[in-house]
């Protein structure tokens, strides 16, 4: 575990145990795939945010544990569906579920995780929670569809790219913070501020993730370097590099995006570096974290708030 897990380490363990219990199904394949996906690990930052926000607001109940598991189930469902759409073969250093079991089981178990999360929400019985999370899952789905439409489009604008990562990634970080604030009885201003904190942290994570696709290595990342290029995804490093390149270099990137072709990855990395696109992308992430940290001022000083600050800063320092 990372240091910012420490203030809620015991509860984090309880959430992991709850996740395993809630994967129960009479259909063995559902359990097998669910366990394979969950046990692959990951940083579990979204459920961690639920725990930290709840405790930062002095919540004394138990529903934050359920909400943390719900958020992880929603996230895991999106990963299952993402990997099918993207035809990914590696995630978190292991073969993806679709690579091991096939596309159909991946989609259907993703559906199971979504439906199980809503069963758990109903048991909590909080209409604010239902409103936030039902809206969030709908926005995520829109983001996924929009990303699919944008694939292999070298003319995608930075504004359109940012809108997709807001919907596809950042809104679930925001929801994790906002639902925790809701069950803690926070006022609307506090809920909104913490939702904005989560949104900015989510944006930073996605921006850094997109940068690492052109700077990381497969072993560290746990996924194939150049996957975004192979899928024809016009992410910010490419969008900015094209805006700053001469025609020959711009055409190399355009053709790679249009064809979903990573064969010239080395050349494209060189263009990304030469144009300052990597630094531009990382600065955008730093700016998002700076905005996130300002939102923490709505919370009283505590080790939980400090952990939230460290989590946001981790977004910039990570290499996977």
TrEMBL record:
<keyword id="KW-0479">Metal-binding</keyword>
<keyword id="KW-0808">Transferase</keyword>
<protein>
    <submittedName>
        <fullName>Polyprenyl synthetase family protein</fullName>
    </submittedName>
</protein>
<dbReference type="InterPro" id="IPR000092">
    <property type="entry name" value="Polyprenyl_synt"/>
</dbReference>
<keyword id="KW-0460">Magnesium</keyword>
<dbReference type="Pfam" id="PF00348">
    <property type="entry name" value="polyprenyl_synt"/>
</dbReference>
<dbReference type="InterPro" id="IPR033749">
    <property type="entry name" value="Polyprenyl_synt_CS"/>
</dbReference>
<dbReference type="InterPro" id="IPR008949">
    <property type="entry name" value="Isoprenoid_synthase_dom_sf"/>
</dbReference>
<comment type="similarity">
    <text>Belongs to the FPP/GGPP synthase family.</text>
</comment>
């Amino acid at each position: 575990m990372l240091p910012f897990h420490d203030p809620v380490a015991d509860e984090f363990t309880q959430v992991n145990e709850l996740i395993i219990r809630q994967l129960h199904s009479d259909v063995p394949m559902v359990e097998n795939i669910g366990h394979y996906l969950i046990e692959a690990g990951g940083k579990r930052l979204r459920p961690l945010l639920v725990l930290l926000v709840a405790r930062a607001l002095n919540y004394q109940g138990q529903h934050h544990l359920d909400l943390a598991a719900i958020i992880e189930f929603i996230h895991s469902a999106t990963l299952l569906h993402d990997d099918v759409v993207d035809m990914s073969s590696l995630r978190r250093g292991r073969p993806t579920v679709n690579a091991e079991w096939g596309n159909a089981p991946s989609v259907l178990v993703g559906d199971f995780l979504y439906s199980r999360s809503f069963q758990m929400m109903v048991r909590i019985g909080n209409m604010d929670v239902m409103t936030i999370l039902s809206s969030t899952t709908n926005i995520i789905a829109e983001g996924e569809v929009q990303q699919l439409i944008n694939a292999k489009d070298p003319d995608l604008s930075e504004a359109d790219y940012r809108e997709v990562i807001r919907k596809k990634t950042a809104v679930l970080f925001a929801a994790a913070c906002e639902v925790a604030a809701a069950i803690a009885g926070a006022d609307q201003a506090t809920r909104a501020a913490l939702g904005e904190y989560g949104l900015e942290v989510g944006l930073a994570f996605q921006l850094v993730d997109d940068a690492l696709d052109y700077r990381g290595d497969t072993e560290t990342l746990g996924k194939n370097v150049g996957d975004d290029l192979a899928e024809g995804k016009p992410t910010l490093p490419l969008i900015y590099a094209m805006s700053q390149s001469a025609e020959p270099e711009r055409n190399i990137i355009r053709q790679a995006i249009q064809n979903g072709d990573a064969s010239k990855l080395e050349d494209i990395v060189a263009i990304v570096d030469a144009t300052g696109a990597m630094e531009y992308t990382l600065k955008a992430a730093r700016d998002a974290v700076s905005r996130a940290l300002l939102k923490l001022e709505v919370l009283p000083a505590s080790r939980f708030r400090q952990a939230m600050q460290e989590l946001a800063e981790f977004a910039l320092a990570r290499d996977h």
